[in-house]
Amino acid sequence: MHRFANPARFARFAAAATPWSAALTALLFAAGLMLALFASPPDYQQGETVRIMYIHVPSAWMAMFAYVVVAAGSASALVWRHALGDVIARAASPVGAAFTLLALVTGSLWGKPMWGTWWVWDARLTSVLVLFFLYLGHLALLNAFDDPARGGRAAAILALAGIVNLPIIKFSVDWWNTLHQPASISRLARPAIDPAILTPLLVMAAACFAYFVTLLLVRVRAELAAAKLRSARSALLAHG
Amino acid sequence: MSAFLALLQRDLRLALRQGADAMLVILFFVLAAVLYPFAVGPEPGLLGRIAGGVVWVTALLAALLSLERLFLADYQDGALDLLALAPQPVALMVLAKVAAHWLTTAVPLIAAAPLVALMLGAPSETILPLMAALALGTPSLSLIGAIGAALALGARRGGVLIPLLVLPLYIPVLIFGAAAVEAAASGAAIYPPLAILGALLLAALPLAPLAAAAGLRNALR
């Protein structure tokens, strides 16, 4: 595993893997959307709006997964000084933020017909919103310094503080919600999921995961190329 | 320990001699709370119901205001470099500066909180729980805030950056601080939320200085 911690080697691996990963993403999305939009039955209570779930739930999963990736990259950058960890955290953060925003927006669009309102202060919604703010703070800190390496280290510390706090925030938001808001509108009946709905959901989740991996590979190569450009430029300036 | 006390003494003395800062924080706190009756109307029932939450949010924002100064002056005049060179761990220095920050900003806030709460018409039996919750919660706010202040050192627009970094991490403290007041108002037991506030403080006490120290070392590199 540590073999790939070398940025140059990882860049070669990423270049080779990107087309395969992209093809897999396209395939999974084609199959997943086909299943989700046409082949799966409408829900007996929610009707056609249940199809929003096939985007919403995978986005929410990826939103959390991407933060774990950011934190893991940050930890390896801080502890082992792996340059690649910093690059991966930098590359994964905007993608995770986009997935979080997607989960929030699709949740809101789904909430309007189901709950009759765009937004409720439900525990899950609120913790995803907080996750979105954590992403925004991470992104802002990444880009707040003239020296990108310094921003990377500061953002890595913030990501670790965030991952420690995330369970605490989740727990306290759950507690807050049960205290202030009795289960009135936000509880959907959650029976065991029927396979006719579960299969498209899992295919869509796999598609979103493959999409995340593809974007990560592309963005890591772009970040590595940008770092190379920066050092070449400063070497050029140093030599006059 | 003596280094800790020396630094604490120095920061307290600096804050007292400059004086105005603590007063400004209190003034902001009272002014921001006074805005609420204008915004939601002077009806006593409504104001009394939201008083606890208003005090918590405005106290939190007031504490946030002063965070930027936590390390900035020492960073700019180079004192922070010398403090970091001292044989004591950087985390201990962070703890001393956080203690000074808490004593000079949060303690006056806790003292002013009953006044603001009563002006908003909070039920009198919620005043003591409010002060207890603030006394247990504000140290966590200062500790977590130190992480944000350390990370934003030397950043472009550092002052705007700190709230973005710190506010999401403040949510648990706010929830349980307001829950203690809510419990007192409805006659429920106030002990559980206060115990959780204490637990949050005990978790933040060792962890936050370490994270802030890592941030400072990054800033001084």
Q: What is the element string of chain A, with H for helices and E for strands? A: HHHHHH
The number of helical runs of chain A is: 6
The fraction of residues in strands of chain B falls at under 5%
What is the typical, i.e. mean, pLDDT of chain A?
85
Quick rundown:
The complex is a heterodimer of chains A (240) and B (221). Chain A is mainly α and 240 residues long. In chain A, 79% of the residues lie in helices and 0% in strands.
Question: How is this structure best described in words?
Answer:
Chain A has one domain. In chain A, 79% of the residues lie in helices and 0% in strands. Chain B is mostly helical and 221 residues long. Chain B has one domain. The model of chain B has no long low-confidence stretch (mean pLDDT 89). Chains A and B meet through helix 4 and helix 5 of A and helix 8 and helix 9 of B.
Task: Give descriptors for this structure.
heterodimer; A: 240 residues; mainly alpha; 6 helices; globular; B: 221 residues; 9 helices; 86% helix
Helix/strand layout:
The complex is a heterodimer of chains A (240) and B (221).
Chain A (H helix, E strand, L loop, with lengths): L6 H33 L13 H27 L3 H33 L7 H20 L5 H33 L14 H44 L2
Helix pairs in contact in A: 1-6, 2-3, 2-5, 2-6, 3-4, 3-6, 4-5
Chain B lengths: L1 H17 L1 H21 L3 H22 L3 H8 L2 H7 L4 H30 L7 H25 L6 H29 L4 H30 L1
